[in-house]
């Protein structure tokens, strides 16, 4: 049997989680491998506050561990979350938005 890294478990086998929509305060379901979801109440995009971070960020075997499609989706979600985080930070500091 091939070794599977325990650090990538939530990416390889996503689990549902709940987050609170910052706009309407309803609960929204988000999967452990996702950076965003759509709120069932107000239909706005809701992002994870902590963003995505895992061993996929530094491991040389990340692509082989989770598969090429999953790895590409992880990188896309991470980039989108980082972009939103930057916009949010600059808005709070009085710059931008």
- Morphology call: elongated
Number of domains: 1
Number of strands: 4
Largest sheet composition: 2 strands, antiparallel
Structural class: alpha+beta
* Helix fraction bin: 25-40%
Strand residue content: 15-25%
- Poorly predicted tracts of residues: none
User: For the residues shown, what is the average pLDDT?
Assistant: 78
The N- to C-terminal Cα distance equals 51 Å
Total helix count?
A: 3
Strand arrangement within the widest β-sheet reads 1-2
Rg over C-alpha atoms, rounded to the nearest angstrom? 15 Å
H and E string: HEEEEHH
Report on this model:
The protein contains 3 helices and 4 strands, in the order H-E-E-E-E-H-H. By secondary structure, it is an alpha+beta fold. It has one domain (9-90). The strands form 2 sheets. The protein has a two-stranded antiparallel sheet. Strands 3-4 form a two-stranded antiparallel sheet. The chain starts with 8 loop residues before the first helix and ends in a 5-residue tail after the last helix.
Annotate the secondary structure layout.
Elements: H1 9-12, E1 16-20, E2 27-31, E3 36-38, E4 45-47, H2 62-66, H3 68-92
What labels would you give this structure?
97 residues; alpha+beta; two-stranded antiparallel sheet; 4 strands; 16% strand; elongated
């Amino acid at each position: 049997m091939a070794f599977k890294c325990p650090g990538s478990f939530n990416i390889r086998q996503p689990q549902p989680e709940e987050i609170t929509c910052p706009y309407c305060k309803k609960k929204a379901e988000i999967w452990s491998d996702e950076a965003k979801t759509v709120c069932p109440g107000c239909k706005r995009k809701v992002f994870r506050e902590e963003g995505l971070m895992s061993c996929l960020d530094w491991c040389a075997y990340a692509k082989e561990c989770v598969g090429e499609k999953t790895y590409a989706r992880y990188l896309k979600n991470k980039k989108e979350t980082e972009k939103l985080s930057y916009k949010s930070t600059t808005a709070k500091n009085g710059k931008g938005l």
